[in-house]
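Lab notebook, bench 4. The sequencing result for the construct came back, and we need a structural model before the next group meeting so we can plan mutations. Quick request posted to the team channel:

Model the 3D structure of this chain.
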Amino acid sequence: MPRATVPLVAHPRQVLLPASLAGIQPDPVTVTAPASLRQMHADGVISDAQFDAVMLMLNAFENNHGFVLADDVGLGKTREIGAYLYSLFAEGKINRALVTTFSGTNVEDMISE
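Done. Here's the predicted structure in token form:
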């Protein structure tokens, strides 16, 4: 059975989106990076791209919006989620979190990272 192809368009955040979503613009980042996140970045725990992704997630959190974190395997989603949750805990914005994964090993990876 042939795969359906969806026309893709470039997005300002350097991702490809289906053409049907081309008009969607991300919220402008209005939050300030928490000290804990700046320290993780300065210490090399997270890369520039991971820092940017966490800032987008923090911005979505502050604006009461959802966020889907999806990219290729091996680009650091586990670290991004860890940095995001750590920042929220460190700032006192949350006191608990529910992490849902497809595999128990993801939770073990997150704890170790």
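The mean pLDDT is 78.
Will bring this to the meeting.
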